[in-house]
């Protein structure tokens, strides 16, 4: 995979956090700002779609066999078996697609995947950890989603405690105690990283 350093495109911007921390909401907010020149990296997964999720928009939904074939062919920039037979990963061709458009890649990705990409592209990557107010608050948010069983929520909470310990390995930490403040901080971090001057900013 070729590195890309064209103008204000070609950067990798990672938002990672335990599930329920609000990283997806922050990433969606940033994508509404054209001056940041962002395009969303669509992850591949072996899980079934949830609710209104669409293939090629929210995720690339692959069968377990397809996912394992991609692993064997080394098609992933990073991948992880998050739960048993439940894989997530970033296809190399997805990053190449976005870089070919001259855009910066923004990731909404789990903690382990975010750190792997940072390690592979240390000079091109801004890695941001989104910290929730508490593990208890995470549990409340996950329950409100009503998309998963109690067992699955408990698995996510157990994983969150481990993930929170990785926060110091990221370039920046945003505390998502107040969403509007967290969104402002995220915008400033990204704008600074890609070199936008004050006149070019809209927030």
Please, how many helices? 7
Helical proportion, percent range: 25-40%
Class per helix and strand makeup: alpha/beta
| Proportion of beta-strand residues | 15-25%
Describe this structure in words.
This protein is of the alpha/beta class. It has one domain (12-195): P-loop containing nucleotide triphosphate hydrolases (Rossmann fold, 3-Layer(aba) Sandwich). It is built from seven helices and nine strands, in the order E-H-E-E-E-H-E-E-H-E-H-E-H-H-E-H. A hairpin with a 2-residue loop joins strand 5 and strand 6 (86-91). It starts with 11 loop residues before the first strand and ends in a 9-residue tail after the last helix. The model has no long low-confidence stretch (mean pLDDT 90).
Quick synopsis:
The chain has 203 residues and is α/β, with parallel strands linked by helices. The chain contains seven helices and nine strands; from the N terminus they run E-H-E-E-E-H-E-E-H-E-H-E-H-H-E-H.
Index terms:
203 residues, alpha/beta, five-stranded parallel sheet, four-stranded mixed sheet, 7 helices
Structural topology:
Blueprint: E1 12-16, H1 23-31, E2 38-40, E3 44-45, E4 60-61, H2 64-72, E5 76-83, E6 86-91, H3 92-100, E7 104-109, H4 111-120, E8 125-131, H5 135-145, H6 150-164, E9 172-175, H7 179-194
Parallel strand pairs: 1-7, 1-8, 2-7, 3-4, 8-9
Antiparallel strand pairs: 3-6, 5-6
